[in-house]
Write a structure and sequence with these properties.
- Helices cover 52% and strands 10% of the residues.
- It has 242 residues and is α/β, with parallel strands linked by helices.
- It folds into two domains: 77 residues, AF1782-like (Substrate Binding Domain Of Dnak, Chain:A, Domain 2), CATH 1.20.1270.90; 119 residues, HUPs (Rossmann fold).
C-alpha cells in the first residue's frame, strides 16, 4: 500500500484504540452479566490488547480487524442487556510540537516521539543545518533534507517540517500546538520559552519536558563509537571526540 494510505489506516486504528479504551472502562463498570457473558467481555479485552500490539508493530490492517471484533462483541453484550455504555466520541486531538536536529536517529529519538504520540498528533520541526551548527557547535552529519526525510518516515510523526533559519519559534506560530514536548537535554528553559510564547500570543501552549533520557543513547556517542572503531590511527581522523 502507498505510504499515505498506510498512515491514514494507522491514524484510524489509533483513534479506534483510544475510543475503545474509554468505552471499555465504562462497560466494565456497568457489567451485570453471568459467567459466560464475562468470558465474552474478557474476549473483548483480548482483542483490544491485540489491536494495541499490532498497532505498535505497524501492522495496522490486522489491528483494525482485531479492534472491529472487540467492538462487535461489546455491542452484542450491550444488546443482550449485560452492560450499558455509549460509544465515546473522541475530542479533537491535541497538536504536539517536537523540535530537534535528529541527526543520527537512535532509540532515544524514538522514545521521545513515541511519548509525544501518546499526547496527540505529533508535529516535528527539524533544525536547519545553520541552526544545528549554531546550537551544537558542529555541523550535522546528515544534511537537513535527509534528516527531514528520515523523520517523516517514522510512524509516530503526523507531519514534519524544516525549521526557519532565523526564528526558531516561527514554526510554533504556524503550527499553533497545544503542547510543546521538550527532550531532557534540550537547551530551552521552560520559563524563557513561556515568556516568548506569551509575547507571540501563544500563552495557552502547555510545555512539558521529559524527565529523563534513555541511558547510553546520543548522536555524539554514535559518532565517537564510529571513530573509535574505524580510525586505525589517531591522525587519520579530524575533529574526533569534540
Amino acid at each position: 500500500m502507498e505510504k499515505n494510505l498506510m498512515q491514514e489506516i494507522g491514524e484510524r486504528l489509533r483513534k479506534y484504540i483510544m475510543n475503545m479504551a474509554l468505552t471499555l472502562e465504562v462497560a466494565k463498570k456497568n457489567f451485570t452479566g453471568d459467567k459466560r457473558a464475562r468470558e465474552v467481555l474478557d474476549e473483548v479485552e483480548r482483542y483490544y490488547q491485540d489491536a494495541k500490539y499490532y498497532y505498535d508493530k505497524g501492522d495496522y490492517v490486522t489491528g483494525l480487524v482485531a479492534i472491529s471484533y472487540a467492538e462487535g462483541l461489546l455491542d452484542a453484550l450491550k444488546a443482550l442487556g449485560y452492560t450499558y455504555f455509549d460509544w465515546r466520541r473522541l475530542f479533537e486531538e491535541k497538536k504536539v510540537f517536537v523540535g530537534g536536529t535528529f541527526d543520527i536517529i537512535h532509540p532515544g529519538h524514538i522514545y521521545l516521539l513515541r511519548e509525544a504520540s501518546r499526547l496527540g498528533k505529533v508535529y516535528v520541526v527539524v533544525s536547519r543545518d545553520i541552526n544545528a551548527t549554531r546550537y551544537k557547535g558542529r555541523e550535522p552529519v546528515n544534511p537537513e533534507n535527509w534528516r527531514l526525510e528520515i523523520i517523516s518516515s517514522i510512524r509516530y510523526v503526523y507531519k514534519s517540517y524544516l525549521g526557519d533559519p532565523e526564528d526558531p519559534l516561527k514554526m510554533v506560530e504556524m503550527i499553533k500546538p497545544d503542547i510543546i514536548l521538550l527532550g531532557p537535554d534540550q537547551i530551552f528553559r521552560e520559563e524563557d520559552l513561556r515568556r516568548e510564547l506569551r509575547q507571540r500570543g501563544l500563552e495557552s501552549v502547555e510545555i512539558i519536558r521529559l524527565p529523563e533520557r534513555l541511558p547510553d543513547y546520543s548522536s555524539l556517542g554514535v559518532i565517537r563509537k564510529i571513530l573509535d572503531r574505524y580510525c586505525i590511527k589517531q591522525d587519520q581522523c579530524t575533529n574526533t571526540h569534540k
